[in-house]
Amino acid sequence: MYLTKEQERMLSGEEGEVVERMFRLLVRLGDIYGADRMIPIGSAQVAGVSYKSIGDPGLEFLEDIAAKGARVRVPTTLNPPGMDLVDWRELGFPEDFAQKQLRIMEAFRKMGIMMTATCTPYLVGNLPRFREHIAWSESSAVSFANSVIGARTNREGGPSALAAAICGLTPNYGLHLDENRKPSYLIEVKVELKSTADFGALGYHVGKIVRDKIPYFRGIKEADVDQLKALGAAMAASGAVALYHVEGITPEAWMMETGKLEKIEVGEQDIREAYGKLNTGSDPDIVILGCPHASLKEIATLAGRLEGKKLKKPLWICTSRATKDAATRMGLTGTIEAAGGRVVADTCTVVSPIERMGYRTIGVDSGKAANYLPGFCKQQVVFKSLDELVEELAA
After folding, report:
1. What CA–CA distance (Å, rounded) separates 260 from 186?
2. 3-state DSSP helix/strand/coil percent for the chain, to nearest 5?
3. 217-266: per-residue pLDDT in tens?
4. Omega of the bond prior to 292 within 30 degrees of 0, cis?
5. Fold classified for 279-393
6. Fewer beta carbons below 10 Å: N end or C end of the chain?
7. CA 360, 320, 316 angle in degrees (round to 5)?
8. d(C-alpha 17, C-alpha 14), whole Å
9. 5-178 belongs to which CATH class?
10. CA 286, CA 380: separation in Å to the nearest integer?
């Protein structure tokens, strides 16, 4: 791999121990995947934030490099921690968990990382441009950045994204290259998708088939940002899809040749079967929405459904702190709380210690959450559309 003189100085330790360690990690990755050089990045998104995910070893690593002066060189946003950083006591998050989680956040703060605490950084200020090289490590955000925005990132791990943020560079391989962004499958969608949950079910089904390859969708007539977010998140969870194309909707689709691709048809029966596989329980203890984090539009939609109603069971909608603040100023948080729900900031069900908080069955409209909750959180799942979930809970 070609390295500039400045990069050689980083590798030799002239810019300090932490930079040397981080850059050595990037060089090894580049060697493994055959990168020809390093490329500058415009931003990073760092995962591995929840104490539930990284535990004491991760906490000790982060505190160590922060104490040794680790600092990011590019705008860097942060994935969700395992709790609401403000209202964690009121919501019932465990005290011992909270103390470790707050130490993790302080370590990231010392590195100059933005305390966004969200899996949708593109909704809170980290919006890359078309074809910009970035290093993101949250799977749904990677999918959205590559597919909907047309930026370029590999599916980074938490350590490699942090290394890229500290060095301002990433190896030039994988989805950074034109030839690796071409589709492998043509997905003919023969069913009308009516809800965000339908897009999640489609993503779950297709991710299982294509695994880490690139699907090209034909037949999706309309899809808003939230539906595309749900589609990509589910494919990233059930498979390892980091890039997809939707004919007539996503920015690179028109550039792609599809004539020789293997075709897969998805019909109504496939969507029904996906719902069946994702539904592992009944009668939820709580409904939790916002995986990936809810947009302001999704919060407004929920508030509209709940206005004048009373919930029979708890309901959370998870989002970023910035989005919650906007929702509060609009009166949306108040409407949801008046019905008995909560707008929960910073965290996400999947990375929270929800299994320690008395819940056993969770209602969701997210294919990603439905896929992960049984394994990560020991939860049974009720997977339905937002309207169906609210109808069951609201009087």
Report:
1. 9
2. 45, 15, 40
3. 999 999 999 999 999 999 999 999 999 999 999 999 999 999 999 999 99
4. yes
5. Aconitase; domain 3 (3.30.499)
6. C
7. 30
8. 8
9. alpha beta
10. 11
